[in-house]
Amino acid sequence: MQERLKELQGEALEKVSAAMDLKELNDIRVAYLGKKGPITEVLKGMGKLSAEERPKMGALANEVRDQITQGITAKQVQLEEAQIQAKLAAETIDVTLPGRPVHTGNHHSLTRVVEEIEDLFIGMGYTVAEGPEVEKDYYNFEALNLPKGHPARDMQDSFYITEDILLRTHTSPVQARTMEKHEGKGPVKIICPGKVFRRDNDDATHSHQFMQIEGLVIDENIRMTDLKGTLEVFAKKMFGEEREIRLRPSFFPFTEPSVEMDISCMICSGEGCNVCKKTGWIEILGAGMVHPNVLEMAGFDSKKYTGFAFGMGAERIAMLKYGVDDIRHFYTNDSRFLKQFSIHE
Ligand code: PHE
């Protein structure tokens, strides 16, 4: 009996040490130490032993059990540890690997141009004014010296919503609204960026919706030379110090006199190329001295106050500044186009 117990101990410990995983170890435990196991079986024969031998055998059986239990516990710790190590090894991350580049969004090229122009004028003491895109005929046309039926309304084909409401065709109505708010008191010094809408067939240089930026200054003693000086600063800051400007006579119903401003071509510096159509000059914006009728309609005394205004298309400025050859690129959201304006690349 003693031998059988020792044999079982040896056998069980051998199996324990060979066990590959926790499940196998548990099976061994059940097989050897369970109620139906061989040790219990051996102990059943204890009745046949003498009173002297019985406690010895009992002690031995307990010892064998303890040995096997200890063996199993030690192995269990070992296997659990191994399991953790294997898991750690499998989940190792190489933190030195370079990361995958993530494309972060960036400001739209038009937003950048508009903000650049805003900053420039804010630096000259202007404030930014905004107004509604769905506008009253009164502010879009009438208050700007364009009464109903005026032929010059044809210069800006419009999207009407009702007889008296339309999508604004320019940002000049913001000027009319701002002047009205000032109740005849200067100075007014604003820059108005925003979306405008005109019935136009879209092509490389036309869009039925685009961004305009207009400026307005009203005060006592504002003269044409103030306009010219302001526009010159703008042209040089946006397109380079070596730019020259020229003013050509033009017509807008809300300014008198009216001009268009050209800048010397930044591609060929005046020698003649495709961008300036061999003239050496590029048209940039419209401007003029605020018409006395416009001042009076907004409640300003045109004998006391004078002013100048100018307006430009942000797309045109961006196209010239960045060499974009089709206005539609600004709206079709091709990420290859948009990404080129990221400050991170
Ligand atoms: N509002 C004019 C346009 O859209 C531009 C402009 C503004 C011209 C101010 C002169 C003065 O054509």
TrEMBL record:
Subcellular location: Cytoplasm
Enzyme Commission (EC) number: 6.1.1.20
Keywords assigned by UniProt, alphabetized: Aminoacyl-tRNA synthetase, ATP-binding, Cytoplasm, Ligase, Magnesium, Metal-binding, Nucleotide-binding, Protein biosynthesis
First-tier enzyme category under EC: ligase
Main location: cytoplasm
InterPro entries: aa-tRNA-synth_II, aa-tRNA-synth_II/BPL/LPL, Phe-tRNA-synth_IIc_asu, Phe-tRNA_ligase_II_N, Phe_tRNA_ligase_alpha1_bac, Phenylalanyl-tRNA_Synthase, tRNA-bd_arm
CDD domains with a match to the protein in the record: PheRS_alpha_core (cd00496)
Keyword Metal-binding (UniProt): yes
Cofactor note: Binds 2 magnesium ions per tetramer.
Any one Gene Ontology molecular-function term assigned to this protein's record: phenylalanine-tRNA ligase activity
Protein family per UniProt: Belongs to the class-II aminoacyl-tRNA synthetase family. Phe-tRNA synthetase alpha subunit type 1 subfamily.
Assembly mode: Tetramer of two alpha and two beta subunits.
HAMAP family: Phe_tRNA_synth_alpha1 (MF_00281)
Protein name (Swiss-Prot/TrEMBL): Phenylalanine--tRNA ligase alpha subunit
Species of origin: Cytobacillus stercorigallinarum
Organism ancestry: Bacteria, Bacillati, Bacillota, Bacilli, Bacillales
